[in-house]
Amino acid sequence: MDAKYELLDAPPKHSKNSVAFVRLRQVAGALTFVLVLVGAFKLHGFQTLRSTWSSLVAACSAGTSSVGSNEYIPRDIHYNLTISQAWRNPDGDWWRPIYVGNSESPIPTINAREGDIIHLTVYNELYIPSSIHWISMHHHASETWHDGAAGVSTYPMLPRANWTAVINTTDQWGARWYSDHMTTAFFDGLYGLIWIRPSPERERPYHLISSYENDQRDMVEAEADAEHITIFNHQHRTYDNLLSQLQSDGYDPFCFQSVLINGKGRVHCKPDGVHDINGEPVDSYGCVKQPRDAVGYGECRPTYADYEIIETRNRRWMMVNLVSTNLHHPFRVSIDAHKMWIIANDAGFVQPREVDIVEVGQAQRVTVMIKLDQQPSDHTMRFYALSKRQSIQGYAILRYPHRRTGVQLGPMPQPPTTLSPMDPLALPLPDKTHSTSSLSPFCPLSPPHPATKTLHFTARGAPDPTNPYITNYTLNGSPWQLWRAFRTPLIHHPNTTFRDPNPIVKDIPLGSVVDIIVQNELDVPVPLYKHNDPTFLIGVGEGRFGWASVDEAVTAGEGGRFELERPVRGYLHTLPPRGWAVVRWRVEQAAMTMFHSLQAEHFVMGMLVPLFEGDDRWPEVPESVRGRPHVEFEMPKGMGIFD
């Protein structure tokens, strides 16, 4: 697939997104940093200066595995991507149409290095409009019209149209993924990865994993040859077809036929030892009974398609990016006879932790380091769904070079369960460890304080007034329906009074420190995601949040409920069932963003909130963005989810 991409060594002219311009901006930023330190010295003396420097640098720089001596000069990189539809049979049982990019699903990985400017030109060869959103990606200089949220930050691409998104990777690294933010094309295969290799100047936590320099060097080298693993729930019917059945007879599309690892997998019917989930009987696919007895599939038939194989290739350490490209339930991941070191989430390096089992939530990325020191053999990689509605498993193979004798012709055998650290419901066995919580940033990073603006949201569901099978899900009182993607993008008109009902939030001044306090009235966890910025999870708990703000709770003696020094930082956080969570960030630039659930049914049926951040300093939207080809859209009178 490399031939389908064009890499330009020579950068284009000095636009706002060119590397030269970015380097100038970086120099300006460095000068600003120096001025801040000098100002601190003049105002408060040497002790304050030393304290400021220590808090920003020294806490994570001493003794790390930095490779700063190998300077890298960022480049402009150009990719072409054509999205279209094709007939595929990824799990060996059922041919069906899926959405592909450059003829593949998942789309071939885009490779870059931190600081590069990616110019991705997308050609829409579909029969439907589309808009590509870059999950967990920050857009610099207020240019959130590259964010790809149709109807919010941009117009969608019409059929036969194209659009070039510009992704500035300055100060961000790791595996990011992208998909459609217009319709339900994502659920039918339209997704891909971007791998941004960290800058040589960035501090690494590898010295906390091993004190041996050879190990640390091998871990740095592993970044150049990182493995990427996508975890995707696959169904034998298209998602729009399933939603039609939901509207007609109430079939809830939560039952999947297979788990695809990097696009490969097979149908595994219900494990023999699984008869129920929390007392509810399961069918041959391992799914609990449909609430309205609707039928979506017949009896399960196992298939024998190939598993994905990850070759060790004589490496001593291997970096693996585990990316959950599904919006339905978390997965727990293990590798037989291997432990894993969690080293990063979607916001960057974290304090490393050694585990047997890694939990990867909906749409999340978790990066692990694995020491490859086992006997030459095939070792099973297990991907078990952590779900109250289905027991489903996926597998891949970690292969050390070895002579495979006695192998019979035919399909790969199904991996045995004897070495698994989990049972089929993804519960850790008693002698195995599992922990992915409290992963604070590697470099000490405290949230800004105090909060200057507090927003209160409530996750709830209400019956649709016209369709008994549909639930309207909301965060801010009203649903944001998918058909709003056709409207004139909100970013064009920050001063407009929008037609009610709507969940839009305005008046978030530039420089604000924002708390969003979210109360959950649902019996299920809600994965919360904010576009454009990572947020600090400063508090989470059960029951009701009984205060107007975090400051009020702290003043009332409830400060122990919050982590205000070194909280978890990321783009995605989980709101517990019938509980609450508080996330915080500072508005550093004007930006048209969103805050929403990344649970499939919540996303499709309205649980999204557009945010006008820094709308007192709104940027000029370029004519190239305002004048994109589009259709004039009239808001439906009924304002229903599927109007």
TrEMBL record:
Pfam families: Cu-oxidase (PF00394), Cu-oxidase_2 (PF07731), Cu-oxidase_3 (PF07732). Keywords: Copper, Glycoprotein, Membrane, Metal-binding, Oxidoreductase, Signal, Transmembrane, Transmembrane helix. The chain crosses the membrane at residues 20-41. The keyword Membrane applies. The keyword Membrane applies. One of its GO terms (molecular function) is copper ion binding. Coiled coil: none annotated. InterPro entries: Cu-oxidase-like_N (IPR011707), Cu-oxidase_2nd (IPR001117), Cu-oxidase_C (IPR011706), Cu-oxidase_fam (IPR045087), Cupredoxin (IPR008972). Residues 85-199, 229-400, 481-614 form the Plastocyanin-like domain. Belongs to the multicopper oxidase family. This is Uncharacterized protein. It comes from Elsinoe australis.
